[in-house]
Specification:
Elements: E1 10-13, E2 28-31, H1 35-39, E3 42-46, E4 52-56, E5 60-63, H2 67-75
Antiparallel strand pairs: 1-2, 1-5, 2-3, 3-4
Length: about 80
């Protein structure tokens, strides 16, 4: 992911080494804006419980979803 841009709204997990219990590879996660974390190459993701945690940005790939999908995912939180 490009650290110079703004953090993405949704990411997909592509790595989970050292976080197997917390991250599921292939799963889409919602992010929360955290420019300080982003500047340190970290991304703040929200898990199923609604809690947010910091992880290395290279564990994720930013994805863009159709507007209807974004609305549906955001309405479930």
């Amino acid at each position: 992911m490009d650290s110079s841009s703004t953090p993405p709204r949704f990411v997909i997990c592509v790595r989970n080494e050292d976080y197997e219990a917390s991250l599921e590879r292939g799963k889409v996660y919602r992010t929360t804006p955290d420019t300080t974390a982003w500047a340190h190459h970290l991304v703040r993701v929200i898990d199923e419980s609604g809690e947010d945690y910091l992880y290395p940005e290279h564990y994720f790939m930013a994805i863009e979803l159709p507007e209807a999908v974004e609305k549906a995912l955001l309405s479930t939180s």
